[in-house]
Amino acid sequence: MDILKFPSDESVNKAISADEPLIAAIAFDGKTAIMSQIDDALEHHILLMKAGLKDTDIDRYFRIVFDKSGADWTFVCPPDYKNISYKDKRIEAFYKDGFSVISDFLHSIGYLVGIDIPKRYRRHLDMMGDENSTI
User: Fold this and answer.
1) d(CA 121, CA 37)
2) Is the separation of the CB atoms in 71 and 116 below 8 Å?
3) Which of 30, 102, 114, 116 is least buried, going by the fewest C-beta atoms within 10 A?
4) CB 71 within 8 A of CB 114
C-alpha cells in the first residue's frame, strides 16, 4: 500500500508519536492511502484536495478518524459501489471490503485497534439488522 502522509512524513510521524488524532482516506482498492494529523486537514475531502487529488472523488475512499484508542469509520456506502444494484448486497460488500482494507491500512502503520461505526453512520447496518457496529 502506498501511503501519502500530508503535509509531510515528519509531521505525520510526529503526530503518531504524540498519539494525536489522525484522519485517513483509503482507496477502495487498498493500493493508496492519504493520511494527516486531523488539524492539518479537518475533513476527508479537504485532505484529498490538499494532497493534490480531486475532492469530488471522496466516494472512492474508505474514510476514518483514528488514534491509538480506536478508529471511527465514516460509513457512507456510495449508491454505485461495485455497480451492485441491490442495496443490501451493496452495503454488505462495502462493509466486508471496508473492514479488510481499513484493517490492512491500520496494521501497516502499526495500529492494532478496533474499528467503530459511529451511531450517526449506522443506519445502513441497522437496516440490515446488525446491532453490533464495532468490528
Assistant:
1) 22
2) yes
3) 114
4) yes
φ, ψ at 56 (rounded to 5°): -75, -10
* Amino acid in the structure at residue 47: L
**Pairing relation of β-strands 61-67 and 70-74?**
antiparallel
Which residue pairs from 58-63 have beta carbons closer than 8 angstroms and sit at least 24 positions apart in sequence? 58/25, 60/27, 60/28, 61/25, 61/26, 61/27, 61/28, 62/25, 62/26, 62/27, 62/28, 62/97, 62/98, 62/101, 62/102, 63/23, 63/24, 63/25, 63/26
What is the signed CA dihedral for 54, 59, 61, 66, rounded to 10 degrees? 100
Cβ atoms within 10 Å, residue 74: 18
One-letter amino acid of 82? K
Quick: pLDDT tens for 25-81: 999 999 999 999 999 998 999 999 999 999 899 999 999 999 999 999 999 899 999
Which pTM value belongs to this model?
0.87
